[in-house]
Amino acid sequence: MKTTCLFKAITLALLLLTTSVTQAAADKMLRISTDNTDLILHVVSNSRIYQTYFGERLTDPSALSYGSNHREAYQGAGYDDYFEPALGIIHNDGTRCTILTYVSHEQKVIPGGTETIVHLKDEVYPVEVILHYQAYTKENVIKTWSEIVHHEKKPVTLFQFASAMLYFDSNRYFLTQYNGDWGTEGLTNTQELFFGKKIIDSKLGSRSAMYVSPYFELGIGTPVSENEGEMLLGTLGWTGNFRFTFEVDNEGVLRLVPGINPFTSDYELRPGEVFTTPDFIFTRSAQGEGQASRQIHRWARRWQVMDGEGDRFTLLNNWENTYFSFNEPILSNCMHEAKKLGVDLFLLDDGWFGNKHPRNNDHAGLGDWQAMQSKLPHGVPGLVDSARAAGVKFGIWIEPEMVNPKSELYEQHPEWVIQLPNRKTYYYRNQLVLDLCNPQVQDFVFSVPDHLLRENPDIQFFKWDCNSMITNAYSPYLKEKQGNLYIDFTRGLYSVLRRLHDAHPQTHMMLCSGGGGRCDYEALKYFTEFWPSDNTDPVERIYMQWAYSHCFPAKVLCAHVTNWNSQTSVKFRVDVASMCKLGFDISLKRMSEQDQLFCREAIYNFNRLKPLILDGDQYRLVSPLQTDHMAVMYVGNPSPTPTANQDREPSAVVFAYNLSPRYGEAIQPVRLQGLNPLSRYLVREINLMPNQQSRLSCHDKVYSGDHLMKVGLPILSTRRFTSTVLQLTTID
Ligand code: GLA
User: Fold this and answer.
1) Less crowded by CB within 10 Å, the N or C end of the chain?
2) Mean pLDDT in residue range 456-465
3) Does 534 sit in the ligand 1 pocket, CB within 6 Å?
4) What is the pTM of this model?
5) Do 37 and 84 fall within a single domain?
């Protein structure tokens, strides 16, 4: 009897407690804001939390409480929703339902904005989820991720683990994606979304972005256009398998579920272990994609990219010049050519290592990171000395996550390799991927750049390559937990990169993956830049650099002048590379004296204009997808004012390219953007061939910003594969 009474009393107390929590929780409004955006969440009477508004920032306070409670902020699977969930857990008792209720939230100031942290829990199972939303006020960027933890007796299996969820209300939705392959990165496609799902995903593991990049644009109501319309630009910071699910439901609402791809990744999560999802980063614009790109560029440089506001090195790479055939005298000559060109650094590419299995082609040596005695008797220190003697900085290529079966590393540690124990091994580029799930392998991968830097503190730059996707997917380390392979591999990579960054914070690194197979904002925390494609044909690069510019600032896009499409002039190739982070991968022997003189002048101009090109606001003026031309400009940040430029530094630079215009095509003037209409600008053509005069009627003339933006400048022509570079200097 007593026990029953006590039980009833406890039950009643618990009931009261639950009710009071519920009442306290209900009707709570959480406002996540930037200067132009509001994302509003509401906790309603069932204690669950819903997205009630996402759009242009609200000015009327009464509008804040409006909205429907159908769009759960982080939907669990298996209960009262019939579309794509954010979270799926197989609990210890085999049930697959999780319902999250609100516990509490807090908002705190972070550098650049505010972070909103929302604590949720399941009332039946000991599962907790924390949602994070970091709103960067001025840049209008929101970064969101989730943490999942449980205290069940045994591990649970996660089968869905989105970073976040977002909902959109419109009659029509248009998705733009960026896909491709080796040499065709950055193809752009737009499609309308109707009832059902569209998925963009990667299953490649290490070389994850080889077929599709981890970013997209969403036109809300109309297809995305450069300067008009409501749209969202979104990207996932994850250097592994990613997935964006877009699902239009029965009411015409679009839900977006971004995150790690759960493909063959049923993840075993131990009690108390925190599963942190990658960041989903997004920015919305009511004035088209141009504004969205500028917002994410500013955010990236200020808050995300390694040394995002620092300087970048111009360089000469030897890959396309020598491939694997070099020795010390050849490299020393390259270093002197780098000096002659006027670039900052010489970058030695693949082929410098391996002794028992020399790396003279891509069949052997990966894994054996000792300088090849036959090619380089004085080792890497000898090369660093030669670079110093030539007067340039030194950088070096590594691919430390990979191994050739023909290597001492493989002979000594076959158990360090991702490889199936019971099937014939499949080789991609004759190599295999090291098992970064294994902490010993992480130590080894870390040791490759770390040893090089300890032996040669003067190494200033790494090109970190990754030429294979994960093949033969089996981690010897994880044994029966193979569902964790793709996720733990990527986390292993981050653990190495974090260690490296902590140990050598100054070293610049280029992220490369057989071209643009890796390009995401989490990797860019550790890399100063990335290699968009092995295809350096300047005509192709115009399209690629246009595509990548939607998500990434020019500062992180490496663009090298090479012999691809050598029918085009050196000037054209240099002008194309100069709109991003300029480099060279070419022998001076392949250039005339005139071309060499031109290059030196263009590098000098690039260095002078770096504050604009790499750190200014980018305006895409003429699309190569809609015309036979392309034009882009960079404006000093902050925009020039009549009094700001006493020292007459240029305040804007314009790049214009003619691709394959038709005979007699009517050419439109290029209308500039981002200028002060009241200022007057001196327009000057630069990057002219030696002894050549500008043929432009606007050269060395003064125009108002108003004129330049409304009337424009006649700088395009019907001459195929030609280019024009202009600098604009504010004169009053
Ligand atoms: C990849 C890179 C190239 C070059 C080679 C070297 O393909 O994308 O730039 O470094 O590897 O093997």
Assistant:
1) N
2) 98
3) yes
4) 0.95
5) yes
pLDDT of residue 243: 98
- The pLDDT of 291-317, averaged and rounded, is 98
Q: Answer yes or no: is the C-beta of 585 below 6 A from any ligand 1 atom.
A: no
Q: Give distance in angstroms: CA of 514 to centre of ligand 1.
A: 5
Query: Residue 294 contacts by C-beta under 8 Å, 6 or more apart in sequence?
Result: 617, 618, 619
112-132 residue pLDDT tens: 999 999 999 999 999 999 999
718 Cβ partners below 8 Å, 6+ apart?
Answer: 658, 661, 662, 663, 664, 665, 667
Q: For ligand 1, is residue 185 a contact (CB within 6 Å)? A: no
Instruction: Indicate whether residue 320 lines ligand 1 (CB < 6 A).
Output: no
Ligand 1 atom nearest to CA at 531: 8
Tally of domains within the chain: 4
Distance CA 71, CA 12 (A): 32
The CA 431 to ligand 1 mean position distance, Å, reads 13
Assess whether 631 and 718 both reside in one domain: yes
**Residue 15's pLDDT is what?**
37
What range defines the domain where residue 127 resides? 29-161
Based on the domain organization, do 235 and 135 belong to the same domain?
no
Are residues 410 and 439 both part of a single domain?
Answer: yes
Which of 499, 534, 569 lies at the terminal end of a domain, its last residue? 534
Residue position matching structure tokens 């890497």: 380
Query: Which tens digit of pLDDT belongs to each residue from 658-692?
Result: 999 888 899 999 999 999 999 999 999 999 999 99
Contact 350 CB / ligand 1 (< 6 Å): yes
What is the Cα–Cα distance from 196 to 176, expressed in whole angstroms? 17
Cβ of 397 less than 6 Å from ligand 1:
yes
**Residue that is last in its domain, among 140, 161, 182:** 161
Question: What is the pLDDT, as a whole number, of residue 195?
Answer: 98
Q: Work out the percent of the chain whose per-residue pLDDT is above 90.
A: 92
φ/ψ of 440, rounded to 5, equals: -65, -35
Distance CA 15, CA 38 (A): 36
Query: Looking at the structure, do residues 174 and 154 belong to the same domain, yes or no?
Result: no
pLDDT digits (tens, 9 = 90+) for 221-255: 999 999 999 999 999 999 999 999 999 999 999 99
